[in-house]
Specification:
about 60% helix
């Protein structure tokens, strides 16, 4: 079967490169800013185009093709049109897509739906609640201190 590499999108190629590095769909989703369902769709649609029966074979075919210069050399970064500004901003400030691990690195409010795992979602909720409680406690203590001074 002839390979139809020219019909592959950059997103499909990028996802297959990450599969070749041993990443799961959820890990690829976190890396690229896509949902894991989108990653799975990209990979599933790429399989017949590269003549592969599974994602591992497709990734191997893409890597082999790139190494033999059929597709050009792979780029060092994953470039997807959907989240390129987010990825670039995170790369500039040294963060991967997601949290930096700081205690009060609060999740963003609003925007797109997230695809966090259950534990990550609950950890984010607890961080927001703890931060809110800290602010209320600080305001209460400052108010009590001011009232005590002026009595």
């Amino acid at each position: 079967m002839a390979h139809q590499f020219s019909e592959l999108s950059e997103g499909q190629i990028s996802c297959l490169r990450l599969v070749a590095q041993g990443m799961s769909s959820k890990e690829i989703a976190r890396e690229t800013g896509l949902s894991h369902n989108t990653v799975d769709t990209y990979i599933k649609r790429a399989l017949p185009l590269v003549g592969a029966s599974n994602r591992r074979d497709a990734a191997r075919i893409i890597v082999d093709a790139e190494q033999s210069q059929k597709l050009g050399s792979p780029s060092g970064t994953v470039v997807l049109p959907f989240k390129s500004s987010t990825l670039a901003a995170n790369a500039m400030d040294g963060r991967a897509s997601g949290s930096t691990g700081r205690l009060f690195d609060l999740p963003k409010i609003g925007g797109e739906a997230n695809d966090l795992a259950w534990i990550e979602r609950h950890y984010a909720i607890i961080k927001v609640a703890a931060f809110g409680f800290s602010i209320i406690l600080a305001i209460t203590l400052v108010t009590a201190g001011i009232l005590w001074v002026f009595e």
